Amino acid sequence: GDDLVVLGIETSCDDTAASVVRSNGEILSQVVSSQADLLAQYGGVAPKMAEEAHLRVIDQVVQEALDKANLTEKDLSAVAVTIGPGLSLCLRVGVRKARKIAGSFNLPIIGVHHMEAHALVARLIERELQFPFMALLISGGHNLLILASDLGQYIQLGTTIDDAIGEAYDKTAKWLGLDMRRSGGPAVEELAREGDAESVKFSIPMKQYKDCNFSYAGLKTQVRLAIESRNINAGIPISSASFQDRSSRADIAASFQRVAVLHLEERCERAIEWALKLEPSIKHLVVSGGVASNQYVRARLDQVVQKNNLQLVCPPPSLCTDNGVMVAWTGIEHFRMGRFDPPPSASEPEDSL
Ligand code: KG4
Ligand code: ZN
């Protein structure tokens, strides 16, 4: 029948996440263990260290997801796991765990694409959301505009030619000396509320290119130079983050955010035009990925979408940032269509991946 219960495992970057989801859309559990403390200490993700952190918690995270759902492995219909894109050392921790469970309990296994999961989770929270639809996926590593024609059929309308918007938020937070115990995005968003977004003149990336691609490396450099020149004027070391008063840092945060998001708005506007020519029945733009949890980003994109008579679908923040729910749900979508791998042999040696 169609009553499926799927465990989803996500270890592609710095969060270890697991979740159990039912095919009727019920989220039975959601567990995330973040490496935020490690990140703050070292100022970035080091693959080997991230792998070790995943290894330390993976068993516990999965067990907790099952316990909170009040289930054991025997109750599952299948196991879904992120197989890419991401750090391969990290991905393998999740894949090994998924294959171990699937092998021991004779369960089918579904390999999930991380970005597809960010997009499809919107269909869990908005059951009205039918193909075709558009999606803007914005995270630390990716900046994608896609047209989703059908399950597994995606046309890429635009991608970043260098950095993703989340990377620009993270570096801006670091150079402004903001608290890095969590990721930089929320810290910049918070500080930006106090600032004057028109005070620092950053230029909008790629204005002259009439396509749907993104670039955030140049804006990152503009922000760094703005901070450095203020340090020079204040007579303190050029790369010091301890300069200026809070209000002038807030001005930089707000001005950065305005231009970073204007770039998204402009590209979405054009992508909608392109996509409607290909698929006139499109009614929705999905915005997902970590940066989509930003309230300013949501509000601005909502304006663009409304102007074009479309609807914005934006998952709640806990489903925008990396999570196991989106992996389990994407697994369900594929499993329903008969797309899965048979249970791995239980005797498979652990290091065969
Ligand atoms: O999707 P995600 O959790 O992981 C990746 O697949 O990369 O996205 C993480 C990114 C980070 O760059 C983080 O700073 C950004 O999402 N982010 C935000 C906010 N919350 C998370 N950026 C701006 N504003 C936020 N509120
Ligand atoms: Zn992600």
TrEMBL record:
Domain Gcp-like residue range list: 26-329
Gene Ontology biological process terms from the UniProt entry: tRNA threonylcarbamoyladenosine modification
Signal sequence, renumbered to the chain: none
Catalytic activity, as annotated: L-threonylcarbamoyladenylate + adenosine(37) in tRNA = N(6)-L-threonylcarbamoyladenosine(37) in tRNA + AMP + H(+)
Textual note on the cofactor: Binds 1 divalent metal cation per subunit.
UniProt cofactor(s): a divalent metal cation
Keyword Ligase: no
Entry keyword annotation includes RNA-binding: no
CC terms in the record's Gene Ontology section: mitochondrion
Protein location: Mitochondrion
A GO molecular function held by the record: tRNA N(6)-L-threonylcarbamoyladenine synthase activity
Keywords attached to this entry: Acyltransferase, Metal-binding, Mitochondrion, Transferase, Transit peptide, tRNA processing
Purpose: Required for the formation of a threonylcarbamoyl group on adenosine at position 37 (t(6)A37) in mitochondrial tRNAs that read codons beginning with adenine. Probably involved in the transfer of the threonylcarbamoyl moiety of threonylcarbamoyl-AMP (TC-AMP) to the N6 group of A37. Involved in mitochondrial genome maintenance.
Family: Belongs to the KAE1 / TsaD family.
Subunit structure: Homodimer.
Protein name listed in UniProt: Glycoprotease 1
Organism: Liquidambar formosana (Formosan gum)
Lineage summary: Eukaryota, Viridiplantae, Streptophyta, Embryophyta, Tracheophyta
Full-length numbering of the shown residues: 72 to 424 of 468
